């Protein structure tokens, strides 16, 4: 049940979570997440009641949705959990112990020192480019901002204005032995007064964390709800039963 | 593809400068863009009551042009700072406007209340307040440049604008309209310092005399150079070949372009002009530095002695190489007579060359001294002079290459033609294709004989050609690096790099949005609006280097495949040298 929990799509414009939360942080009383028993609303902080955060683990990524107390703004963050610092630390300690046992540190100290420095530099460089979290901030009528957070705390972001955005869709890439799903923003040129804008570019999202299709569906629904008029959107049953 | 849905359009966006948050209560004045449901607040009228309605209206009517109108868009309330409210309508707003809003300052983020005839579906929750720093926006060249590019038709922009362009445009319009002289006794807080970015940073009035003199000199020089005497083809070829003169010509055109461009032009143009001027200035500084280095002590003498020794070494090595080829080079058996003939020919040439070097020996030191002194005119000039000096010193290698290439090319041409005869075909010059032809027996006999002779002489010629091609490519590689250095110095955007380090606010390109959350408890059920802070982010270095100013295409004139095929066919190659400097098309 936990893996197949999905939103059943019957959203209407009046559904929000802010009025219906209980202070103890229990699950919502069924407005949005029918049957999704694994969803936890734990954003009810004692000081700030302005936004509610929803966290969910799907596969090897953690999806965090921040509802900014408004229909017009949502933030989706995908955190990749595959890097486990404790495992790495134990591995390094084990290697150090082996090195000590074999008396490697007495062989050629200067060489060891240089090698160590080199490895530490390489590690720092590698960590500088390792993406830990990718987030998507969607603001209706303003635009979409895509942010990447690296392991050392640095962030880099890119902003797409609403006039450049045609749509946000889930696209498929078919290779020899698998189908890869990815969420992408369709970019368009600014249209003139009367002509229809053409899609000129695709901007794929979440290229480092590669969340699964289920995760992408959640993000997609949220984005569509924020950007477009939601009354027409979610009337049909969304029937994705892909494992 | 599903039909395209319309995006949400019933969201009101209010762009509020951060400077407003510290101001006292007053009336907010700005531009409203109905089509994009955006309001850009540009100034705050610090009036205590609306009793001065008449004067405010007169002040606003000054700020009207055919296409834009600055209107009162709302009310700003700042009740946190302790001051007398003086009968100000806190809870009974009664502005005689069709629709307006009231922004109230809370501890951290402002709250908004809509009044008047807004579209019915719009509530307070549909309002988005975007805070930004107006001063930083005004300082940015790129963003204000984009605002200047906006084309407007009867008050409405032709293309839908991005928000940042819209805000910049509103500030621009407000500034333009604010210039109009109407003095009324109204305390207004403009969020940007007036006319700040119109003040030139590098071409001030104090330098205008110098610029007049320079422009006069430039006009004289261009008049002279466009006279009929100098438009001759011969003169053009003579001046085009050495690197120095073309370098001078390029510098000249650059500076002319910069000085003749109008002062109050587009900010991006001015940025690029500043790049060019600062680039030349840096050039001159580096040249002076190199000059000081070379003139210190007797470096030029030692350098010239080293260069002569190197030239002598090269001559000696070449002679050794030719003697080696006369024997059995690398195990290849060459045709003895041809081999000896070519070798003697080249050796005689080298003998002539040593004579030339003897002539050059006393002059070398002086030449180097003059080159270093020319650093006053820039490092690129010095590098060009060095490039020319290198070409002069390796003239014999160039001559060898040309001889060997011509010989090889001739042989290849003859071979291909005779090969076609061997197969019974002919090259049709008119139709530019290979046609079949019938030959007489004696033609065939003679042709086959010649073909065989030429084919067996080919390895010798090919070997000589290969050796000299390699030498020539080495020299060309050196020249190419110098040429590339010169190009890099020219196209480096110095001013923009400096701005990135020292004043990043000036070259901000994009924005970064962040949702502001109130830290205080908000009662559940009270509607509140979304508040976003917009920060300006400088352009990245890679985008800086990708822009080209002169339209100089640094695309290679040769691709690898065309280069290799020219080499194989024996055609003369001139890589890394601009096409206009080649005074002879490759045959």
Q: Averaging pLDDT over every residue of chain A, what do you get?
A: 73
Number of strands of chain B: 14
Class computed from helices, strands and strand pairing of chain A: alpha+beta
Considering DSSP H and I runs of 4 or more, what fraction of the residues of chain B is helical? 40-55%
The largest β sheet of chain A comes out as: 7 strands, antiparallel
- Which stretches of chain A are poorly predicted, pLDDT < 50 over at least 5 residues? 1-49, 231-243
N-to-C order of helices and strands of chain B = EEEHEEEEHHEEHEHHHHHHHHEEHHEEHH
Oligomer: heterodimer
Q: Report the C-alpha radius of gyration of chain A, rounded.
A: 23 Å
Total domain units of chain A: 2
| Main sheet record of chain B | 10 strands, mixed
Mean pLDDT of chain B equals 78
| Backbone shape of chain A | elongated
What fraction of residues of chain B sit in β-strands? 5-15%
What does this protein structure show overall?
Chain A has 243 residues and is of the alpha+beta class. Chain A folds into 2 domains: 4-83 and 130-242, no CATH class; 85-128. Chain A contains 4 helices and 10 strands. Chain A has a 7-stranded antiparallel β-sheet, with helices on one face. In chain A, strand 3 and strand 4 form a beta hairpin. Chain A is elongated, with a radius of gyration of 23 Å. The model of chain A is unreliable at 1-49 and 231-243 (pLDDT under 50). Chain B has 587 residues and is of the alpha/beta class. Chain B contains 16 helices and 14 strands. Chain B has helices at residues 53-62, 134-139, 141-148, 163-178, 208-225, 233-240, 243-260, 267-295, 299-326, 336-373, 379-393, 395-423, 441-491, 494-502, 541-546, 560-569, and strands spanning 12-17, 26-33, 38-45, 71-77, 99-105, 110-116, 127-132, 152-153, 156-157, 188-190, 425-428, 433-436, 508-515, 530-538. In chain B, strands 1, 2, 3, 4, 5, 6, 7, 10, 13 and 14 form a 10-stranded mixed β-sheet that branches. A two-stranded antiparallel sheet of chain B has the order 8-9. The relative contact order of chain B is 0.10. At the A-B interface, strand 7 and strand 8 of A face strand 13 and strand 14 of B.
């Amino acid at each position: 049940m936990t893996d197949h929990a999905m939103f059943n799509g019957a959203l209407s414009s009046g559904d929000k979570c802010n009025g219906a939360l209980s202070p103890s942080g229990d699950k919502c009383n069924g407005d949005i997440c029918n049957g999704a028993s694994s969803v936890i609303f734990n954003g009810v902080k004692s000081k700030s009641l302005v936004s509610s955060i929803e966290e969910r683990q799907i596969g090897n990524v953690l999806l965090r949705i921040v509802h900014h107390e408004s229909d017009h703004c949502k933030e989706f963050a995908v955190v990749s959990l595959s890097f486990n610092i404790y495992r790495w630390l134990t591995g390094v300690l084990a290697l150090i112990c082996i090195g000590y046992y074999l008396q490697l540190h007495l062989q050629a100290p200067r060489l060891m020192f240089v090698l160590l420095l080199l490895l530490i530099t390489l590690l720092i460089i590698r960590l500088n480019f390792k993406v830990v979290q990718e987030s998507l901030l969607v603001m209706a009528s303003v635009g979409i901002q895509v942010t990447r957070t690296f392991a050392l705390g640095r962030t880099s972001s890119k902003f797409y204005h609403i006039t450049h955005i045609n749509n946000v869709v889930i696209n498929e890439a078919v290779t020899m032995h698998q189908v890869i799903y990815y969420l992408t923003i369709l970019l368009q040129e600014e249209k003139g007064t009367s002509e229809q804008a053409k899609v000129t570019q695709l901007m794929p999202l979440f290229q480092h964390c590669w969340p699964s299709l289920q995760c992408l569906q959640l993000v997609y629904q949220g984005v569509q709800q924020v950007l477009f008029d939601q009354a027409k959107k979610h009337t049909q049953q969304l029937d994705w039963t892909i494992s | 593809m599903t039909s395209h849905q319309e995006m949400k359009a019933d969201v009101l966006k209010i762009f509020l400068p951060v400077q407003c948050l510290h101001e006292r209560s007053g009336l907010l004045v700005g531009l409203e863009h109905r089509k994009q449901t955006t309001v850009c607040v540009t100034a705050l009228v610090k009036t205590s009551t609306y009793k001065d309605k008449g004067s405010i209206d007169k002040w606003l009517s000054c700020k009207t042009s055919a296409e834009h109108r600055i209107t009162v868009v709302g009310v700003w309330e700042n009740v946190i700072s302790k001051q007398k409210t003086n009968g100000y309508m806190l809870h009974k707003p009664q502005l005689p406007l069709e629709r307006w809003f009231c922004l109230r300052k809370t501890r951290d983020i402002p709250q908004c209340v809509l009044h008047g005839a807004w579209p019915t579906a719009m509530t307070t929750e549909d309002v988005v307040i975007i805070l930004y720093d107006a001063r930083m926006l005004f300082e940015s060249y790129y963003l204000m440049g984009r605002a200047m590019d906006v084309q407007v038709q009867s008050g409405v922009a032709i293309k839908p604008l991005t928000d940042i362009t819209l805000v910049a445009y509103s500030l621009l319009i407000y500034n333009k309209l604010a210039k109009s002289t109407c003095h009324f006794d109204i305390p207004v807080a403009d969020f940007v310092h007036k006319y700040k970015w119109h003040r030139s940073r590098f071409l001030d009035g104090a330098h205008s005399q110098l610029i007049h003199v320079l422009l006069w000199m430039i006009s004289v020089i261009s008049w002279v150079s466009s006279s009929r005497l100098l438009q001759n083809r011969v003169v053009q070829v003579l001046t085009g070949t050495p690197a120095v003169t073309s370098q001078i010509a390029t510098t000249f055109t650059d500076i002319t372009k910069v000085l003749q461009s109008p002062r109050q032009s587009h900010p991006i143009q001015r940025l690029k002009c500043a790049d060019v001027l600062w680039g030349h200035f840096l050039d001159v500084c580096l040249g002076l530095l190199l000059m000081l280095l070379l003139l210190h002590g007797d470096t030029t003498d030692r350098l010239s002695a080293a260069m002569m020794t190197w030239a002598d070494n090269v001559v000696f090595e070449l002679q050794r190489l030719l003697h080696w080829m006369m024997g059995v080079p690398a195990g290849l058996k060459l045709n003895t007579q041809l081999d000896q003939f070519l070798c003697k020919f080249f050796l005689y040439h080298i003998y002539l060359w040593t004579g030339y070097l003897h002539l050059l020996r006393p002059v070398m030191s002086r030449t180097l001294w003059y080159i270093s002194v020319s650093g006053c005119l820039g490092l690129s000039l010095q590098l060009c002079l060095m490039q020319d000096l290198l070409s002069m010193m390796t003239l014999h290698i160039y001559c060898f290459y040309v001889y060997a290439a011509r010989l090889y090319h001739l042989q290849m041409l003859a071979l291909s033609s005779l090969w076609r005869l061997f197969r019974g075909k002919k090259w049709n010059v008119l139709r530019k294709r290979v046609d079949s032809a019938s030959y007489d027996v004696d033609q065939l006999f003679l042709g086959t004989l010649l073909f065989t002779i030429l084919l067996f002489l080919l390895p010798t010629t090919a070997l000589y050609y290969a050796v000299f091609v390699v030498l020539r490519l080495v020299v060309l590689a050196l020249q190419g690096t110098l040429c590339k250095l010169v190009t890099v110095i020219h196209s480096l955007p110095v001013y923009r790099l400096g701005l990135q380090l020292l004043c990043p606010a000036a070259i901000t390109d994009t924005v970064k949005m962040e949702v502001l959350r109130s830290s205080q408890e908000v009662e559940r059920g009270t509607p509140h609006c979304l508040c976003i802070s917009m920060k300006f982010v400088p352009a990245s270095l890679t985008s800086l280097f990708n822009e080209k100013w002169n339209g100089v295409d640094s695309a290679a004139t040769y691709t690898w495949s065309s280069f290799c095929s020219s080499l194989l066919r024996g055609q003369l190659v001139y890589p890394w040298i601009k096409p206009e400097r080649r005074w002879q098309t490759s045959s």
